[in-house]
Amino acid sequence: MNVLFLCTGNSCRSLISEAVFNHLAPAGWRASSAGSRPTGTLNAKALALLAGKGISTVGYYSKSWDALPLTPDIVVTVCASAAGETCPAYLGPVLRAHWGVDDPSHVIGTEEDIDAAFEIAYATLRARIEAFLALPLDVLKDDKARLKGELDRIGHLRPGVA
């Protein structure tokens, strides 16, 4: 099963999602990330955060959804549409879910404020990915409606809240 984490720039939230998912995923499940308008570079703070958590980003790069090597089975948008961002709409025939997360790279403030925003984004995405991977995936992969419902429910989870 292939999961695509999608946002506009593919430099921060989708990168974090891809790296965390691949770090935790069982055999046979793989994530990639892409953007509708990729920045072409990965966010240095996101890379440092992942390295600090022991999560590899070797081989990752900011890329367009036009450059995907294969069609994903599931697309999860991670932009924060409630914050006024425009979420890209993936147009392939796939299962879609939205897990909006505020972009920590847009936070203005002290270094502590910015670091806290990155930690919140990471914790939110990790909690959602852990919840996704805790589902009975062997059963749900053949029940798309139920899987969609679970993915939508997970999109509302906050760290430390079930």
TrEMBL record:
Alphabetized SUPFAM superfamilies for the sequence: Phosphotyrosine protein phosphatases I
Domain Phosphotyrosine protein phosphatase I: 1-135
Name under which the protein is recorded: Arsenate reductase ArsC
UniProt-listed Pfam families: LMWPc
Keyword Magnesium: no
Keywords carried by this UniProt record: Arsenical resistance
Organism: Massilia pinisoli
